[in-house]
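2 proteins. here.
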Amino acid sequence: MLSSYLAHLAVERGLSANTLASYRRDLRRYVEHLRARGLETFAQVAESDVVSFLAALREGDEDHPALVASSAARAVSAVRGLHRFALREGVSGHDPAHEVRPPRQLRRLPKAITVAEVERLIAACGPEDSPLALRNRALLEVLYGTGARISEAVGLAVDDVPTGPVRDGESDQDQVRLRGKGGRTRIVPLGRFARQALDAYLVRARPRLAAHGRGTPALFLNARGGRLTRQGAWEVLQAAAERAGLSGVSPHMLRHSFATHLLDGGADVRVVQELLGHASVTTTQVYTLVTVDKLREVYAAAHPRALH
């Protein structure tokens, strides 16, 4: 039953390999929990059994550390989906997880770095024309310039981006095709800085890197001519951040910065939703909270009765 559900998630829902691995881990732990309570079939499971699993997740035991609310919520979501699937497939005549709600999560505001810090970060890739320096600058420009997830950036192919020198009047070609979660594809505009960095990389660096490999359509290559991995891209960012004197910078932080700077510049939240590839605007609205400080600054500077 478990393997059938995971296959359903992979084929029909198009979940990523990382998400599937997390679901598999959570659900195996759930099945072990049910067996420890003497339950062998899904038809035997009651709501109290699901609730006890949630409690076990939060409390932890000698084999498993206690999970934070976000991780426990993911596990409960996996369990809820499994029981819905079991009911639909006729394996069980009821859904004991229907009324079980994931734990409430504290709302954490996304962290963002300033525009000046972004410029320092990109400049820290180095002015030299080495293939790796040109690649690194193009990678960081794309991450910040499009709001791409790191998996989306390293998953790019050469055909997904515009090629050739940047010319005026070609704004319709200044866009990149990103493949996001669930196999969804979106088209995102590509700014002039990112386009210029990509052009320099494609003309002066990628052919030299590709000469070391066996031929791949991947846009970003490693020193051996193969596709740059997520870990490799992470290391590029960490090295640039260290040279720029910035700490705690992650690929997702660049994505947060992309969204925050757009909203600070007056972009509509639904436009930002489309650019980020969020399925729901609710996910994007958390960024509007980040800009409250910006609103206060503007109010304090502009309103004649703002000063106390």
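next one coming up
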Amino acid sequence: MATPGFAFGGKMPHPFSTVDQRRMYGDLSWAWPIICPPNDYVKETEEYIRLVRKYARIPVTAVANFGCGGGHNDFTLKKTFEVTGVDISNQMLTLARELNPEITYICGDMRSVRLGRLFDAVTAFDAINYMRTPEGLKAAIRTAFSHLRPGGAFVTQVQDAKDNFRQSRTRTSTHSHSDTEITLLENYYDPDPSDTWYEALYIYLIRRSGVLTMETDIHHRGLFPMDVWREFMKEAGFSLHEDQILLSEEDGGSIPALIGVKPIA
């Protein structure tokens, strides 16, 4: 017998499923501005701006943001720099263009895209952590290097590393807008510690005018030792620096940041 006021949207995945769904970047992209509004990204983005200015050896005017998603980091970046955003998801780019109509957005893969111009700085927020293989991570880092002017800085974060990964880490949060309320449960699990990726499981409890729909989503993300990140940055040609992206205690306190500076010949 169905429970009144409850609708089940989408099938639960098989318990042993390894399918990389990434529905948040597809049919569930509409929920992103509710779950993570632009103002939630101000502090993190200001930290990127601080690191760009600290490490770049040239004046920074133009920035390329790879893996820009729905443009929430760009919302703050554009107040300081001329920004070009790149993402592989057309659905997320639609959101980004609505939020930041003055920014140029391009659909492309950070492992292979070539924009035909150079920038003073390149940023890659958490999207680079979707590189699941050594080859993919190397390619993304090389893409950043190829788009920088000499003296320019590439700033990125290592959201999770094998050195500090916590198995079955779980958290919940609730967000609302108008008549829609979304409670999000996140669970992070590494099914095979011998490989280079882990599973991020998301369960969405979506209430529209009190009617509940449940959606599930699985993302596969890369999981490498910090030394692998360091090695690939140096192999690409960067002068490597390490720092921290300082966040609130609620958001974990800090995230390791890697900064690559392209040498000036």
